[in-house]
């Protein structure tokens, strides 16, 4: 037993030599992330900067721009500067000329960005720290536009569709260098290689878990009442490493391991994408011919007051969701007349049966987090095998799904990592009162460990 304990101590010491700084950075950056999330442009904010559609110039689609038999799974009509455009999953069409938009020019990008403020500078980029994720790939290259003003705002305009896809300000960028970037090891050149970044996070977390576990074993073994009345045999810095480590070690281990699971290592928590269920709800493979006719009908009806129109097929019928600048929505049928879908009656049938209920408040799997929106009300369908579907009552769109793997991800990563097991734990000030003391305790353990590591290295160096 003495030999095992000795080897555990050696392993803990040398792992600490490598990981003390990353572990402390993880904890401190986690504190920052409670208050400042990674930059993301909210859809309601984006809508607020759009202008109403100019129906006088809409809606022409040339035969060569969209094939009659093309399958369209996403279609959005908005203004790009002074002209209406149709955004598809791949590319965009100028609805004034009817031609494909091969690239968005600087003048258009500047005009789009000017709705957010006075343009001070603009440059074309492939990616940067705030646009490195794969979700921006369809929009590259990007125009990064710096706006005049003291808050250092920047907006990013897609070079392929002219859509504003990201926005940041100086405060967000500063705090994210202390928050999300170190916490996720999210340095742009590393994150650009998704496989390398994923493996870096997984293996750093795994070795960090070993560091924490060996420390817990050592600490618990040494934590016992002695004849002197003391529970710890250590003094000074070592005492302040030992006691917080014993008290908060389990939380540290939970956060490190759950952080590793966030990367879904080796496909352990790979959930389904519900592609088949989305198609069942739509019940329609929208073709180029159908979309072209629907746009002509919309232009003839000229529905007013909206800044964006998105195709929303449901149960085999084409419809559009019209968005106003304040984010409010109206459902229009294929010829532009307001309509109400029978989502409540049809969703359960289309998805294969189950218990369908109207959801007016969040549940264990459907709730907002760090700017992620969970629209309410929604319809929740729970099937006999436990699978859940969340459906938008206006559009009939599938908002989310939860299968067995997703449940594992929720309870093995999200809940233990964020300690958001219940709604009251997600609400302030309870969240702050729970998270901050725990994070401070773990930070104390890692900070004293870092100091002891530096002291040990200095002694060995001098020897």
Quick tags:
463 residues; alpha+beta; 44% helix; elongated; transmembrane helix; PepSY-ass_TM
Description:
44% of the residues lie in helices and 16% in strands. The protein has helices at 2-35, 43-48, 106-113, 170-178, 180-183, 188-191, 194-222, 236-261, 275-282, 288-301, 343-350, 404-418, 423-426, 430-462, and strands spanning 75-80, 83-88, 92-94, 100-101, 119-125, 142-147, 154-158, 164-168, 308-311, 319-323, 329-333, 355-359, 378-382, 388-391, 398-402. With 463 residues, the chain is of the alpha+beta class. 31% of the residues are buried. The strands form 3 sheets. Strands 4-3-2-1-9-10-11 form a 7-stranded antiparallel β-sheet. A 4-stranded antiparallel β-sheet has the order 5-6-7-8. The chain has a 4-stranded antiparallel β-sheet with strand order 12-13-14-15. The mean pLDDT is 91. Helix 1 crosses helix 14 (430-462), helix 8 (236-261) packs antiparallel against helix 12 (404-418) and helix 8 packs across helix 14 (430-462). Among the domains are: 2-37 and 187-269 and 429-462; 43-169, no CATH class. The protein is built from 14 helices and 15 strands. The chain crosses the membrane at residues 12-38, 196-218, 239-257, 433-454. This is PepSY-associated transmembrane protein. Keywords: Membrane, Transmembrane, Transmembrane helix. It comes from Nitrospirillum amazonense.
Record the SSE blueprint.
Layout: H1 2-35, H2 43-48, E1 75-80, E2 83-88, E3 92-94, E4 100-101, H3 106-113, E5 119-125, E6 142-147, E7 154-158, E8 164-168, H4 170-178, H5 180-183, H6 188-191, H7 194-222, H8 236-261, H9 275-282, H10 288-301, E9 308-311, E10 319-323, E11 329-333, H11 343-350, E12 355-359, E13 378-382, E14 388-391, E15 398-402, H12 404-418, H13 423-426, H14 430-462
Helix pairs in contact: 1-7, 1-14, 7-8, 8-12, 8-14
């Amino acid at each position: 037993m003495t030999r095992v304990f000795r080897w555990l101590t050696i392993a803990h010491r040398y792992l600490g030599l490598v990981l003390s700084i990353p572990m402390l950075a993880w904890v401190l950056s986690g504190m920052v992330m409670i208050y400042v999330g990674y930059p993301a442009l909210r859809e309601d904010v984006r809508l607020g900067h759009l202008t109403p559609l100019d129906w006088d110039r809409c809606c022409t689609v040339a035969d060569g721009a969209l094939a009659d038999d093309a399958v369209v799974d996403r279609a959005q009509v908005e203004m790009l500067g002074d002209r209406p455009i149709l955004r598809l999953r791949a590319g965009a069409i100028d609805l004034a000329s009817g031609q494909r938009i091969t690239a968005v020019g600087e003048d258009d990008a500047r005009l789009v960005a000017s709705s957010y403020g006075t343009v001070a500078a603009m440059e074309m980029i492939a990616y940067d720290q705030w646009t490195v994720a794969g979700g921006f790939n369809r929009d590259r290259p990007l125009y990064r536009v710096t706006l005049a003003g003291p808050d250092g705002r920047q907006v990013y305009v897609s070079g392929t569709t002219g859509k504003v896809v990201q926005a940041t300000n100086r405060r967000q960028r500063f705090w994210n260098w202390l928050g999300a970037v170190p916490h996720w090891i999210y340095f742009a050149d590393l994150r650009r290689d998704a496989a390398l970044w994923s493996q870096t996070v997984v293996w750093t977390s795994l070795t960090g878990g070993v560091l924490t576990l060996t420390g817990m074993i050592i600490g618990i073994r040494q934590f016992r009442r002695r004849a002197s009345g003391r529970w710890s045999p250590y003094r000074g810095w070592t005492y302040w490493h030992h006691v917080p480590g014993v008290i908060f070690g389990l939380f540290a281990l939970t956060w490190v391991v759950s952080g590793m699971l966030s990367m879904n290592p080796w496909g352990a928590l790979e959930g389904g994408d519900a592609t088949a269920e989305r198609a069942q709800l739509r019940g329609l493979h929208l073709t180029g011919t159908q979309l072209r006719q629907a746009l002509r009908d919309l232009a003839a009806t000229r529905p007013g007051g909206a800044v964006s129109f998105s195709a929303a097929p449901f149960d085999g019928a084409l419809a559009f969701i019209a968005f106003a600048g304040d984010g409010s929505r109206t459902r229009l049928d294929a010829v532009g007349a307001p309509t109400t879908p029978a989502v409540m009656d049809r969703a359960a049938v289309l998805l294969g049966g189950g218990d369908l209920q109207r959801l007016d408040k969040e549940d264990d799997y459907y709730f907002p987090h760090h700017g992620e929106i969970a629209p309410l009300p929604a319809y929740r369908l729970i099937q006999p095998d436990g699978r859940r579907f969340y459906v938008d009552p206006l559009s009939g769109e599938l908002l989310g799904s939860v299968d067995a793997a997703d449940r594992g991800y929720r309870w093995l990563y999200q809940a233990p990592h964020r300690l958001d097991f219940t709604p009251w734990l997600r609400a302030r000030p309870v969240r702050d009162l729970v998270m901050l003391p725990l994070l401070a305790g773990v930070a104390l353990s890692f900070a004293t460990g870092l100091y002891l590591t530096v002291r040990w290295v200095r002694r060995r160096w001098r020897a």
